[in-house]
Amino acid sequence: MPGSEQHEVSVRDTHEIWNSNADWWADRIGEGNRFQLEILNPPTERLLAIQPGERVLDVACGNGPFSRRMAKAGADVAAFDFSELFIARARKRSAETGDTIAYHVLDATDEAGLRPLGERSFDAAVCNMGLMDIVDIAPLLSALSHLLKPGGRFVYAIPHPCFHSTATSIVGEQIDEHGEIVTHWSVRVRDYLGLKAQRGIGIIGQPQPHWYFDRPLGAVFDACFAQGFALDGFKEIPMPPGEEPARPFSFETVPGIPIALVARMRLVGTPNA
């Protein structure tokens, strides 16, 4: 497939790790943590702009917190994840939503498995902090170009590729400024271009580090453009300090540098040959 990525990491590797982390993540995340509820969800929902009655696909849904938010907003939701344990937890937590959410165990790298969800049957799709966990995003984007209605929108949130990846770090420097010792915080970028795979942690304490697939901003955009999508919405998101003092070496110490971004792609053309 044009634009497909080659990694030594297999889907099986990532699947086993996420199944081992699923129960811990589901217990820890619940209906969302501060980062999701206060910082990430608002711009994602503004760009998604769900209208009651729309059919929406939730990609890499985990235990389903964003699926449930969309269902409460009046959407008819289909959601999938490749972790059977995540989907089991999602169904259990969504018992009160009735038939407004249909959960599926599906692999985002298997286009043939995604296509039966319904040709041209979705008004929108969303992937909320999931693309960086997917071995190869080309099959997913190809599937979305068939699942979405013409003009349909795909909104995704990811760690900001320029500033927040496995090749970046928070750096603190103590400087004597006019006789006063002050600490300046910054982000150091060791690498950016190219495709990289490395294990890391999303939440401190998770059972196993999982695979991150770092892609430069242009690589994600190009993969979308190749399937007939055009960028028509974009938001860079900082991590503002919370009420409690920021822990050292966190993005709360660099509120002027975005930790994540949300982009809206709209299906306006046909896939490139």
Largest sheet: 7 strands, mixed
Helix content: 25-40%
Q: Show unreliable segments.
A: none
Chain-averaged pLDDT: 92
Content of β-strand: 25-35%
Overall strand count: 11
Characterization of the model:
The protein has seven helices and eleven strands. By secondary structure, it is α/β, with parallel strands linked by helices. The model has no long low-confidence stretch (mean pLDDT 92).
What secondary-structure arrangement, pairings included, does this model have?
Blueprint: H1 11-29, H2 34-48, E1 55-59, H3 65-72, E2 76-81, H4 84-93, E3 101-105, H5 111-114, E4 122-128, H6 138-147, E5 148-159, E6 168-177, E7 180-189, E8 196-200, E9 210-214, H7 217-225, E10 229-237, E11 260-267
Parallel strand pairs: 1-2, 1-4, 2-3, 4-5
Antiparallel strand pairs: 5-11, 6-7, 8-9, 10-11
Helix pairs in contact: 1-4
Which terms would index this structure?
single chain; 273 residues; alpha/beta; seven-stranded mixed sheet; two-stranded antiparallel sheet; 27% helix; 30% strand
Short description:
This protein has helices at residues 11-29, 34-48, 65-72, 84-93, 111-114, 138-147, 217-225; strands at 55-59, 76-81, 101-105, 122-128, 148-159, 168-177, 180-189, 196-200, 210-214, 229-237, 260-267. Helix content is 27%, strand content 30%.
